[in-house]
Give the backbone structure.
Amino acid sequence: MPELARSVYLDHSATTPVSQHALQAMLPYFSEQFGNASGIYRQGRQAKQALEEARRTVAGVLGAHPGEVVFTSCGSESDNLALRGAAWASRQAERGRHLIISAIEHKAVIETAHQLAAQLDFDLTELPVDGKGRVDPDALTAAIRADTVLISIMTANNEIGTLQPIAALAAIARQHGIPFHTDAVQAPGHLPLDVEALAIDALALSAHKFYGPKGVGVAWLRRGLALVSSQTGGGQEGKHRAGTENVAGIVGLAAALAEAEAMRPAETPRLLALRNRLLDAIPALIPGARISGHEHERLPHHASFLFAGIEIQGVLMGLDMAGVAASSGSACTSAAQAPSHILTAMGVSAIDAAGHLRLTLGRSTTEADIDYVLEILPPLVARLRKLNR
Ligand code: PLP
C-alpha cells in the first residue's frame, strides 16, 4: 500500500495500539519467562507470580478482591461467561427464568441473551432507550419480576458513546436482590470503574480497547455470585475459565489498565476539548448533520453523527483516501444492510441510520488532526451528496 502523506486514526473505540509500557511488560513472557502457570517448578512459579500480580493490579483498579478477577480471551467471552453462567446457575437451582438487558447492548450480550431465550426458554426483556440512547431507571423497576435472575446493562455504548446511569440502575437491582452485570468494555481510561461505588456484581473488560493486546479480557465476578462455567476443562481461573492462561497477554492487560487509569485525569480533559470541537463544528459546518447519542452524557473521546441523505460508506472511503481511519460504529454502512439495532432502538429511521459516522479519539490525537478532519469532511460530504442527487 502506498504511504499516505497523513495518517489520522480516529477509531479508538474499535481498537487501540498496544502502549510501549504494556508491550515492554509483556515481552519477557513470550520467551524467557514462558512457563505454564500450573507448573510447580521455577518457570511455572514465575508465570503464576506474574499472573497473580496482574490479578492484583486489575483488582486494585476496580476496587475489587483479586479472587474475583477472571481472565478471559476477550470482552465477548466475559459477557458470555456472566450471562450464560448466571442463567445456567439459576436453571440448575430451579430459580427464575427472566433476564433483563437493554435494547442497545453489544451483540456479545444481545446474541447471548437471545440464545438463552431460544434454547433454554428464558424470558427476555429488552429495555427501550430514549432518542439519546439512555435507559430510564423507572423502566428497569417496572420490568423487574419475581423470577428475574440477571440484569445486564452496558456502561457506555460503543456506537453512540452514550453513558448509562449505572449506579442508579444497579441500586434498583440491588434493592430487588438481583445481580447486576455491566459490559464496561468501552470505559477504561475514560470513566472511573470502582465496583463498590457502582454497587455492581459483574463486569466485562477487553484489553485491546485500552492500549493492551488483543485476545485477552476480564470478567469481574463478585464473590458469591452463582455462576456455572461455560468453558470447562482444567481448573484455571478459579474454575471459571478453563485453559492455560495467556500469561503475556494478561500481564499486558494489567499494565495497560493501570496505565490507562493513571493517565485518565490528564487525558480526559484533553480528549474532551478535542472531541467537543468535533461535536460543535460538524453540525455547524455540514447541513443536515446532527449528533447521535447524548450531547454530554457520553464517553469523552467519542463523537458520532447522523448525516441525512447519505450512505456513510462513501464518506468512510473518502476519509480513508485522505488518510483518516473512521467508522460507522457498526457492521452496516449502507441502507441495503440491516440498520444498526442501536440506532433503530433510538428511533432513527433505516435511511438515516445508513449515514452514521463515528470518530473516536485517543492518545495520538492532536489539534492538527481535528483541524484536518474539519477541513476535509464538509467538502467530502457535499461532493457525495451532489453525486447522489
Ligand atoms: N462490548 C462492547 C461495548 C464493545 O465495544 C466490544 C467490542 O467492540 C465488545 C463488547 C467485544 O469485545 P471483544 O472484541 O474483546 O470481544
User: Anything to note?
Assistant: The radius of gyration is 21 Å. The first helix runs from residue 20 to 26. The mean pLDDT is 96.
